[in-house]
Amino acid sequence: MSTPVVNIWDARTPGARSTSSKAPASDATWRLESSRAQGTAWVYYSSPEQKHLRRPVILADGFSMGASSLDMLWDGLENGQYPFVSKLREQGFDVILLGFDERSASILDNAEVAIGCIRKAIAEREGSAKLTVGGFSMGGLVTRYALAKMETNNEEHETSTYLSYDTPHRGAWLPIAVQAFAHFVKDNWGDTPNYGEHLSRFSHMVNSPAARQLLRWHIATVGAEAGQDQERTDFLEALERVGTWPQRPRLLGVANGVGTGVGNGIPAGTPAMISHGEHLGGTHLDTQAEGNAVVAQLCKAGDRPIDITTRAIPDIDGAPGGLFPEAALLPGRPANFGTAAMLVELLEGQAPELVYNATTFVPTVSAVATGDIDNRDTLYSKVDRDSSELHDFACAGDNQGHTVMTEELGQWIVDQLR
Questions:
Q1: Contact status, residue 171 vs residue 215, Cβ threshold 8 Å
Q2: pLDDT tens digit sequence for 287-337
Q3: How far, in Å, CA of 267 to CA of 217, rounded?
Q4: 65: closest CA among 387, 375, 362, 327?
Q5: 27: burial class by Cβ within 10 Å (0-12, 13-18, 19+)?
């Protein structure tokens, strides 16, 4: 199974194995700093004799906690089904991989790093070839905002093509059941010696600025009502102030989900993870159902069970789209419900019953910016190409892992840029 480009859990996670490969040394490394965020860009020229950029392609990393890892990015881009960086370089493009010191920081803050990278690429460029700028998952939103802000400020970004790879333009989805369980574990066992920090990390990730901006529905505590977080509202307003999209480049995007409206087969309102252990026995997390629904029951030995309910959320777990990325370096490759199961196993010393590891993370209609993910009919309908805010896009042939680089999608991008 292919490794995603954007990894939620990496080699620094307890229990993870080392990355399978090391990235080759970059031809240049840029340290990028603003007053709000910092990052690093790794530059790979198209040919060994080069000393300057000729045809720059900037690709930004996506969401997780902590700093970007060049090795992990390279593994997802080069060692899967399609060697994307190599194919770009064969066509004469210089590839700039843009990483962030804190991937969970505000998208608006990391956009300042992206702006610095664009400026640096223009300064280092030989000739007048236009840039291609974009990113994977959240990286597509970071660069979308960066380009739009530069235009609003009348700053030339010299970019002819914007590119997003399974970017949640209309919002991402993490089951409310999983969010609630992450907070439940932190609240009850976050102070446990040796394990507490690890048990709390998922909750901290869910409540980070970038996660609040990306997720269409969010809860900050176990008992909160699911809805749009203020961070997301503020981000969307900031995006609107800069024109919503950059106006000068051609806008391209790809989705790791199908465009036919066919879902991934995961049913609504059914158990996805069930614990039978001593501490959490009776706890179950369910896939999302429409209407007023109980999506989880959280049980701690000796305490009264807590029901987690939602309303007005469609049955989105089974919708067409990129599946929550599996942690390739962790045993069992946990995804969203799989991460909840991993936390249960840490607490109980035994694995729970895991029915569904990964469900939809970025619905297709979000990745290709054709419709709101609040609407069930829109989620499960064939994509309407005429309604997309992108100039052109491609959808995958099946509902696959979020940001997995495939020959189908990678070659489409190379053909478009060529």
A1: yes
A2: 999 999 999 999 999 999 999 999 999 999 999 999 999 988 888 899 999
A3: 20
A4: 327
A5: middle
